[in-house]
Design brief:
Layout (H helix, E strand, L loop, with lengths): L3 E3 L13 E6 L2 E6 L14 H6 L4 H26 L9 E10 L6 E7 L2 E4 L11 E5 L7 E9 L10 H4 E9 L8 E6 L5 E6 L26 H4 L1
Parallel strand pairs: 4-10
Antiparallel strand pairs: 1-2, 2-3, 4-7, 5-6, 5-8, 8-9, 10-11
InterPro entries: DUF3304
Keywords: Membrane, Transmembrane, Transmembrane helix
Protein name: DUF3304 domain-containing protein
Length: about 230
């Protein structure tokens, strides 16, 4: 017998139902079933005709389908909410490098700078190695401050050397931290009369968008020691 698909008259009643055919090849017959998947609680392997015979009307099936569709939309919405990115904790903090710069026009120099108890190095022209940093909240808030402590020393006088206790003095101030949104680094400016600025920013001194002073114009580290110019 050639490959023919048909439904014999004497086949069981279940074979004649929609979606079921008897396929015969070379004298062997096999029952082929067509399955439909429905997420409505009425039997996921039943055709519409089968479910009607089992007592489910089309109205019931439509009602159940709408209910499950609504539930599916609700679950999808919950999944979207769960996958949404979380806002950072306003109390959470991050570390930012600190570059200290000395703008005082006198012939003194700043040897050590501490911010909130962490040593951040010497105050220079704005370059060099960054020794320490500051902890900042992700969101700036009014009243945000840091404790800055620095050591300012007189230039060394080779003819009249004095101990550090006499040549240097320590100053400590509570300094407001200027408002920021995005931070690439933090710049600390030591100005005249012991004024201090702390500016977290994405750009640094010398950039047109930097909200603070330009780089210092005097390089204290290249000045000759006291007494040397007098002996020349």
């Amino acid at each position: 017998m050639s490959n023919v698909a048909y439904t014999p008259k004497d086949a069981p009643a279940t074979v004649a139902k929609p979606g079921r055919v008897l396929i015969c090849r070379n004298g062997e017959c096999k029952l082929s079933l067509k399955f439909g998947v429905y997420f409505d609680g009425t039997g996921n392997n039943q055709e519409l005709g089968d479910r009607a015979e089992d007592g489910y009307s089309r109205t019931d099936m439509a009602r159940r389908s709408r209910w499950f569709a609504t539930a599916g939309v609700a679950l999808f919405a919950l999944a979207l909410v769960a996958c949404a990115p979380k806002q950072p904790d306003p109390d959470a903090t991050f570390g930012s490098s600190v570059t200290a710069m000395d703008h005082d026009p006198s012939d003194t120099f700043v040897r050590n700078v501490f911010v909130d108890g962490t040593w951040v190095g010497e105050a220079s022209m704005g370059g060099g190695i960054v020794a320490g940093g500051i902890s900042l909240p992700y969101r700036w808030r009014p009243g945000l401050t840091a404790v800055v402590r620095w050591e300012r020393c007189d230039r060394f006088d080779r003819n009249h050397p004095v101990p550090d206790e006499e040549a240097c003095r320590w100053t400590e101030k509570v300094v407001p931290i200027q408002k920021y949104e995005r931070v690439g680094g933090t710049w600390l400016h030591l100005l005249s009369d012991d004024e201090v600025l702390i500016i977290p920013s994405m750009v640094g001194p010398g950039h047109p968008a930097y909200p603070g002073p330009d780089l210092p114009t005097k390089d204290f580290f290249h000045m000759p020691p006291k007494g040397k110019e007098q002996t020349q």
